[in-house]
Amino acid sequence: MIIRNRSALPLLLTFAVLLGNQSATAQDAASRYWADSWRGWHFYEAPVPEEIEHPLPPGKATTTVPPAQPSRAPELLEFERLQKALEETRNIAIMRPSEANVRRYMELESQVVARASYFADVAQRVAWATPQLDPTLQGRPVNAKALEVFDQAELVDRSRAITDLGKDHVLFFFYRSDCPYCHALAPTLAAFQARHSIQVVAISVDGGQLPVFPNARPDNGIATALKVSQVPAVYLAQPFTGKISPIGFGVLSESQLLERIAVVSTPQAEAMLPTTTQGLALPPEVP
Question: What is the pTM of this model?
């Protein structure tokens, strides 16, 4: 066929495509018909029902079930009731202190005290039967005989520790020759030096001498560097590091010296004693 009117060409092409689609559709329908002959001549397939959401009637909202709360021990509930009752009866008695109100509060308070006393008795018996929970066996004992044994053992341990400390430490003893307290402390320091093998370096602030320390050294500025404003004063010094820690001022007993030196010489002493001086240049004559 010869097409003389070229403007009608697109329309003819569209018509041909439509005819092709219809023929293909007819062929597909025929093939489906012969393939589905087992369904029968009057087969009817019901449509799939759609799920329809029915709206809730007005005024009725969905209720969410709250999570179940964990059950509490009945003892806790009883304690809270007793605590609340005691507080309320006390407040009533304070605001209206009649005989009946005060009596009611005192009776309830006596019940609480009785319960606390019974608890203390049971706790004490548990501690007696369990050494790990007995506070009298932890640290310093309270029994007089046990305390005597504890102090003696602690004295031996501290004396041994200070003897080891004396290998590279000395005690600085700052004094004045006209100070009676310095004269009273000097014999204690001399006996301490002999018993525990730690050297005592006596330093005279005023240049005077003491009978117990005839080889005392005059102050060459170290008292000023340490800001020693009161005598007698005792310091623990480690010459090769220049580390100096105050031990105490005034007249000290041997037990006090042992205790304080043991505390100051611990590894954590720097954190506990902010006044510890480090890096101080000691005079060359100090051992």
Answer: 0.52
